[in-house]
Structures are given as C-alpha cells and as structure tokens.
Inverse folding.
C-alpha cells in the first residue's frame, strides 16, 4: 500500500474555489481502480491550510492516477489556488491492522 500525506496552504481569497476543485477531484479519484482513500480536510486552527491523505493499493494505481484527465485539470488549476507548493510525503506500507 502507498500512502501520500501532507498539507497545502491556500490563497485566502481562493479558498472557496479550492474547496470546489478538491471536491471534484476527490469524487473523480474515488472511482479509480486502486484508490483506497483520497481526502482533503481543512485545518481546524488555520482554514487556509488543507490536509491531504491518499491511500493506494499499489504503485501502479498511483501512477495511473497521475495520468487521469481530472489530475491534469487539477494540476492546471493548482497554481491559482495555492500560496505555496504542497508539502507531501510518500510512504510505503507493508502491513496495517485496525487500531
């Protein structure tokens, strides 16, 4: 399993547009083969920060995600929405269990 986690700081005046784009992106991504989770959430202390969490079945599913039309559109819009580049980390998970 592949996990992607991190944050992105939005332009405050673009927050509403960013929410709309994030919702469309998440909806389209949830339909992809191999997508186990794909979420954006607002920081409780700073509404201009979104937390990003993705879980993918394998590297092939993640690579396929980067080739989708909705990913291309999201990447095209991203520079107008964010104040700084997203800060993301990629994790390789060998096992998981309920906690």
């Amino acid at each position: 399993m592949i996990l992607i986690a991190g944050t992105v700081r939005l332009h405050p005046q673009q927050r509403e547009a960013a929410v709309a784009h994030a919702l469309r992106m998440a909806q389209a991504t949830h339909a992809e083969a191999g997508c186990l989770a794909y979420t954006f959430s607002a920081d409780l202390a700073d509404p201009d920060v979104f937390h990003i969490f993705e879980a993918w079945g394998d590297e092939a599913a993640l690579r396929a995600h980067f080739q989708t039309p909705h990913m291309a559109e999201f990447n095209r819009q991203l520079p107008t929405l964010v104040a700084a580049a997203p800060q993301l980390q990629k994790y390789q998970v060998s096992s998981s269990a309920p906690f």
Residues 2-92 form a domain with the Alpha-Beta Plaits fold (CATH 3.30.70.100).
